Amino acid sequence: MASLADPITLVSTFNALPRNRKSPSGMFDSHYHFSIRHVPLTPPGLLVFIILPAARYVHIEGPLPPDFETASSPIKATTVAMLLLKAFNGGLGATDDIKAQGLQVGRPWSWVCNDAEMAGAVGEVLRGMEVTAPEGVGVAEEEENNIADGEWTRFFGGLHNHVRGMGA
User: Fold this and answer.
1) Which pLDDT tens digit goes with each residue over 53-100?
2) Backbone φ and ψ of 120, nearest 5°
3) What distance in Å separates the CA atoms of residue 66 and residue 45, rounded to the nearest whole number?
4) Which positions of the chain have pLDDT values less than 70?
5) In the prediction, which pLDDT does 82 show?
6) Are 139 and 123 in contact (CB under 8 A)?
7) Residue 40: its pLDDT value, please?
8) Closest to 77 in 3D by CA, of 30, 113, 109
9) Residue 10 to residues 4, 15, 96, 136, Cα–Cα distance (Å)
10) Helix, strand, coil % over all residues of the chain, rounded to 5
11) Which of 20, 33, 75, 98 is deepest in the core (most CB within 10 A)?
12) Is the pTM here over 0.85, yes or no?
């Protein structure tokens, strides 16, 4: 898989993925939500949290660089855009069993972000990188944000319990 240091391969790999209106199961629209989430563990950090809201399927990428919060908007957007491409190029963490069944996540039909400024900036970066589709990043609706918030709480609770169980 291409590293984040190789944006040309990230983009060409992403653009070559199939693009379907439905998720691999055929049960849900291929509509993804992403957001930046703070992880208040030691050490604290930030992640890109990706969710297929209709299925409650989650995936994370990161951690984001330590200087992410103080970086300029274009740097933040470029970092997030590249992590999104990496995530979809990697099948959102699909297992070998899923891949053997021929189920491929592919490119999303659409994606949205909970933050309007981030959505616009990431969409601009993706267009500049010549990502062919989806065109732009929308702003998530309240229901999508509520689902993402609820799943983040569930996900982080599990992560926190796992880390506590390890004695950290």
Assistant:
1) 999 999 999 999 999 999 999 999 999 999 999 999 999 987 777 767
2) -65, -45
3) 7
4) 1-4, 99, 102, 160-168
5) 96
6) no
7) 84
8) 113
9) 7, 9, 21, 17
10) 45, 20, 35
11) 33
12) yes
Could you tell me the end-to-end alpha-carbon distance of the chain, in angstroms, rounded to an integer? Answer: 32
Rounded CA-CA distance 168/163 in Å is 6
CB count in 10 Å sphere of residue 99: 12
| 97 SS3 class | helix
The pair of structure tokens assigned to 100 is 């053997």
The dihedrals phi and psi of 130, each to the nearest 5 degrees, come to 65, 35
What is the number of H-type helices and E-type strands within the chain? 5, 5
Residue type, 18: P
Note the pLDDT of residue 163: 64
- Cβ atoms < 10 Å from Cβ of 90: 15
DSSP for 110-166, written as a single string: EEEES-HHHHHHHHHHHHHTT--SS-S-EEPPHHHHHHHHHHHHHHHHHHHHHHHHT
